[in-house]
Amino acid sequence: MKKIGRLDRPDNNGTAKMFANPLLEKISRTHISIPIAMFIGVGIYALYMGISATSISGYTAVLLIFGGFLLFTFVEYLMHRYLYHMEPDSEVKDKIQYSMHGVHHDYPKDKDRLAMPPFISGLYAFVAYVAFNFVMGDYSFYFLPGFLFGYAGYLGVHYIVHAFQPPKNFLKVLWVNHAIHHYKDPDVAFGVSTPIWDYVFGTMPKKS
Fold first, then answer.
1. Domain locations in the chain?
2. What is the pLDDT of residues 88-117, one digit of tens each?
3. How far apart are CA 48 and CA 50, in angstroms?
4. Using CA atoms, how far apart are residues 117 and 99, in angstroms rounded to an integer?
5. H/E segment holding residue 65
6. Contact partners, residue 151, CB within 8 Å, separation at least 6
7. How far apart are CA 63 and CA 173, in angstroms?
8. Which residue of 88, 103, 109, 141 could cross-link 94, Cys pair, CB 3.0 to 4.6 Å?
């Protein structure tokens, strides 16, 4: 099992001071509603542009939105597994890994660090738009919202699984899987918003 955080108590309820500079420390935190609102807002604007400035059919638009959402869930899985949990075999990689994700494993109940700061979230949205627009032109006005709505959904799910008790319905698997990932085995259950890619790549937690 690879070491992902630095504390011996992964259920720590506190918070980490990551920067000596008070301004950097402040902007490293964010309320979860800010990036969610950013992604939803940009997604809605892109949809407006798609409807008002293109002649793409409704059927195609729905397929593009679903495709963008599905791509996000795949990117979420890959980034969580291979970037956020990369082997910190050098001092530089250790600092990057800890800043991006290790600190979250040490302080999983720190609600101010359950999402990237707004300026990083905004950069993600911009890069996604440029990439999709370059590849698919006007179709990106529908593909991008699916991707960003997927991102917003992921942030919402990630927040509620840390902030609330699990429900007594089919969604409970999301709470259970993420708890296993945090407190038992960080090498399984990389999908937060959906377990689909854990099924595909064989990283679902083994049933007791």
1. 22-163
2. 778 877 777 777 777 888 888 787 877 888
3. 5
4. 12
5. helix 58-78
6. 39, 72, 76, 124
7. 27
8. 88
